[in-house]
Amino acid sequence: MRPRPHPILSMLLALTAAGCEPGLEAAGVREATASRLEDERVSVAVTLACQEVYGLPRADGRCDADDDRICVSARWYAADDLRFESPLTTVEQCQKVPSIEGTRVTLTSPDAMAKDPGLRILIQADPLATGIILANP
Question: What's the pTM?
Answer without folding.
Answer: 0.75
